[in-house]
Design brief:
The complex is a heterodimer. By secondary structure, chain A is an alpha/beta fold. Helices cover 39% and strands 18% of the residues of chain A. In chain A, β2, α5 and β3 (102-106) form a beta-alpha-beta unit. Helices cover 9% and strands 33% of the residues of chain B. Chain B has a five-stranded mixed sheet with strand order 2-1-5-3-4, with no helix packed on it. Classes of the chains: A alpha/beta, B mainly beta. Chain A: Pfam families: ThiF.
Chain lengths: 267, 75
């Protein structure tokens, strides 16, 4: 699409009133392609914000079904949806609420063995949201984005601790400006116990992280985002945010491999 | 945050709490001193993530602000 309809001018007028977004930014949102992996507390809200903002092309990935204990924080679903795949419910609801939305609903579990096959379904412009609930999946998604040069927007929360970052792995940066990846931050052998199912979580705290993910995503699409490679940590108890630059681990084999591939492409 | 020799006693902030460290303390030693689980945390020193492969090589410096936090994976 290269021009908005009259209805879209009215529908998205508040977004376009922002000087740095305008009609160009709104068209970028409408023409964007998004993959959301994990349709739990984070993903179900990210997809709603993005669809409401005008995103039309979604790939939604989650093998999980709606359960009763999801409902306090996963507002896209209702009791009538219990037992149904989350991505199927999301597709149905989004198609009802928003016109011309295309949803590719995938109920396969993304794993290390199928990640290469999965990557063929994405193009270089696909914006990837990691909204999963486990460490293994997060490493697989990180690997996918590093190897494919994609932009990754990752959020996580457990108990009162939230974490968020956005890295554009396709950006050509000088050596000193290169960001670390998820593996540079958390090596694969890290001992992790903080998941929502083990530690609990408050629905609105999940919502804060999901809203931030959607906000970062829209800013990236509109070329207004500047905080790439910055880890944001949110304490939902004290309501404080902390920032840190994500440095590359010079011993990260994933980053080294991607760098070598980059050199090979340039040659 | 560098590998220079610090003075005998230095003041640092660890997760927002002022602490005094005696002697030359590298980051991995600090974790042991504070009884923090080395395999379950990430570290930020002066607003920059310090990758784990550097923990044995970086010495705590006077006025360092050190944050130690757990990995979070829930969603």
């Amino acid at each position: 699409m290269n021009a908005l309809t009259d209805k879209q001018y009215i529908q998205y007028s508040r977004t376009m009133l922002l000087n740095d977004i305008g009609e160009t930014g709104q068209l970028a949102i409408i023409n964007s392609q998004v993959a959301i992996i994990g349709l739990g507390g984070l993903g179900q809200l990210v997809v709603q914000y993005l669809a409401a903002a005008g995103v039309k092309h979604f790939m939604l990935v989650d093998h999980d079904v709606v359960a009763l204990d999801n409902l306090p924080r996963q507002l896209l679903y209702s009791e009538a949806d219990i037992g149904q795949h989350k991505v199927s419910v999301a597709k149905r609801t989004l198609s009802r609420l928003y016109s011309n939305v295309y949803v590719n609903a995938i109920t396969d579990k993304l794993t290390e063995t199928n990640v290469i096959e999965f990557s063929k379904r994405l193009n270089t412009e696909t914006l990837v949201f990691d909204c999963t609930d486990n460490f293994v999946a997060r490493h697989v998604i990180n690997q996918l984005c590093v190897n494919q040069g994609l932009t990754l927007i990752s959020a996580a929360i457990s108990a009162y601790q939230g974490q968020l970052f956005c890295i554009d792995f396709g950006a050509k940066l000088s050596h000193e400006k290169q960001h670390g990846c998820y593996r540079c931050l958390y090596p694969v052998d890290i001992d992790i116990k903080q998941t929502c199912s083990q530690q609990g979580v408050l629905g609105p705290a999940v919502g804060v992280m999901a809203s931030m993910q959607a906000l970062v995503g829209l800013q990236h699409i509109c070329n207004t985002f500047t905080q790439y490679g910055v880890l944001l940590r949110f304490d939902a108890l004290t309501l404080q945010w902390h920032q840190a630059k994500m440095n590359r681990d010079q011993q990260c084999t994933l980053c080294q491999q991607a760098q070598l591939q980059g050199y090979a492409h340039e040659c | 945050m560098n590998v220079n020799q610090p003075s005998q006693s230095i003041n640092v902030m660890i997760n927002g709490v002022a602490e005094t460290l005696k002697g030359h303390v590298i980051i991995s030693e600090l974790l042991i001193l504070k009884q923090l689980p080395i395999n379950a945390v990430a570290i930020v020193v002066n607003d920059e993530v310090l990758p784990r492969s550097r923990w044995n090589h970086v010495m705590c410096q006077h006025d360092d602000s050190i944050c130690v936090f757990s990995a979070v994976a829930g969603g």
